[in-house]
Amino acid sequence: MDRTGVGFTIKITIKNTKASCAVLKDAIVDIWHCDKDGYYSEYGGTSMQSVNYTSVHFLRGRQTTDENGLVTFTSIFPGWYSGRATHIHVHIYNSSGNSLLVTQIAFPEGTNSAVATVNASTANGYTKGLSGYTYNASDNVFSDSVTNELGTVTGSISEGYVLTHTINVAS
Predict the structure, then answer these.
(1) Cβ atoms 149, 142 nearer than 8 A
(2) Residue 14, beta-bridge partner list
(3) What is the DSSP string of the chain?
């Protein structure tokens, strides 16, 4: 199922804390996030998400890190849903498929942030704005601190946005 929204590139680098934080080649990186309306694929029909997308697959991907420990995904800028700040889910496995870390990436917020700009972009189908938005400081996942989870977002509506983030794992 195709999803519409503002262009978004996700660049995640994986580093190994057991090897002096050297980049980790051949790590498997799974990501998933909601669409511009706050809906996830492979989920729904519940009080948490009324729209049932349990049999639909979108905005999910898996890649293996290159020699620089990097994966790059092409997507759309995620929306948000009640109770959560804008975020991306990430599950990292070693090359044998053993789970190393399940985490989430938070987004910078504020008046001129991509989160504010994109959610005001009704021309691109983002119709919710930020009325009722839960900020990182109040999000039940990020409220303790976003220091390790906060990505860097650059770009614009017209050019698309790029998120870069480094995740450290013990492999």
Answers:
(1) yes
(2) 167
(3) ----SSEEEEEEEEEEGGGTTEE-TT-EEEEE---TTS--TT--SSSS--S--TT---SEEEEE--TTSEEEEEEE-----TT--SEEEEEEE-TTS-EEEEEEEE---STTSHHHHHHT-GGGT--STTTTPPPGGG-TTTTT--TTTB-EEEEETTTEEEEEEEEEE--
Q: Are 103 and 149 in contact (CB under 8 A)?
A: yes
d(CA 150, CA 125): 25
Q: What is the structure's pLDDT at 107?
A: 98
Environment class of 110 (CB within 10 Å of its CB; exposed 0-12, middle 13-18, buried 19+): exposed
Output the CA–CA distances (angstroms, integers) from residue 11 to 40, 63, 75, in the order listed.
Answer: 21, 11, 11
pLDDT digits (tens, 9 = 90+) for 71-100: 999 999 999 999 999 999 999 999 999 999
